[in-house]
Amino acid sequence: MDEDPQEKPTSGSWGRIACAWAVAFAVLHFYWALGGSWGLSVSAGPLAEERPGWFVAVGLWGVGLLCLVGGVLGRLLARPRPRGLAGRVVKTLGWCVCAVLLVRGITVEVLLLTDTAGQEIAVSPEQRLWTLLLWNPWFLIGGLVFGLAARETGRAEGPSSGAA
After folding, report:
1. What is the C-alpha separation between 77 and 16, in angstroms, rounded?
2. Distance (Å, rounded) from C-alpha 87 to C-alpha 99?
3. Which position has the higher pLDDT, 35 or 131?
4. Residues 2-26: what's their mean pLDDT?
5. How do residues 132-152 score in pLDDT, each as one tens digit?
6. How far apart are alpha carbons 69 and 151 in whole angstroms?
7. Half-sphere exposure of 94 toward its Cβ, with a 13 Å CA cutoff?
8. How far, CA to CA in Å, does 39 sit from each of 32, 48, 55?
9. DSSP summary character for residue 80
10. Mean pLDDT of 90-94
11. Which of 9, 82, 98, 132 lies 20 to 30 Å from 45, alpha-carbon distance?
12. CB neighbour list of residue 55: distance below 8 Å, 6 or more residues apart
């Protein structure tokens, strides 16, 4: 009896971390969308200074809202997995988010390290440094966390889930 309360706080922890990761990224995008500039110029380059309407609407507000959806997904991954189609959809979406974040982080990292794009894409040395050391690792961490959350979801469904 005493083991169940001890196990419950740890089950779903990766989902809660995924939720926090996504919400933190959403808050940062909303800060930028409202006019904040810290960190934006080194990640978005000239778009940060020009702030065209499409960039603010899609790249800042849109990505922020998408991150909030990711936060909801992280929260769902933290809960005991429902049976049937709903549980499979949540788990599959978790793996999809994992894959997208990892592919994005790895691809951009490789492109910048190998300088594959060359002079065709204007990336300042400061942008390259910040992207390699901060932004890409952020995407890689998010991908790993969502993957761990998807892997963990439903695992705590031992004997206690049937007793309810």
Report:
1. 8
2. 19
3. 35
4. 77
5. 777 888 999 999 999 999 999
6. 19
7. 33
8. 9, 9, 16
9. P
10. 95
11. 98
12. 44, 47
Q: Report the alpha-carbon distance of residue 74 to residue 21 in Å, rounded.
A: 9
Which residue in 104, 91, 93 sits closest to 150, CA to CA? 91
Mean pLDDT value of segment 70-91: 90
pLDDT band at 131 (very low <50, low <70, confident <90, very high): confident
The total number of residues written for the chain in this structure? 164
User: How would residue 1 be classed by pLDDT, with cut points 50, 70 and 90?
Assistant: very low
Question: Does residue 143 contact residue 105 with C-beta atoms inside 8 Å?
Answer: yes
Task: Say yes or no to pLDDT of 163 above 60.
Answer: no
Q: How far apart are CA 73 and CA 22, in angstroms?
A: 9
Q: What angle do CA 30, 23, 106 make, to 5 degrees?
A: 95
pTM over 0.90: no
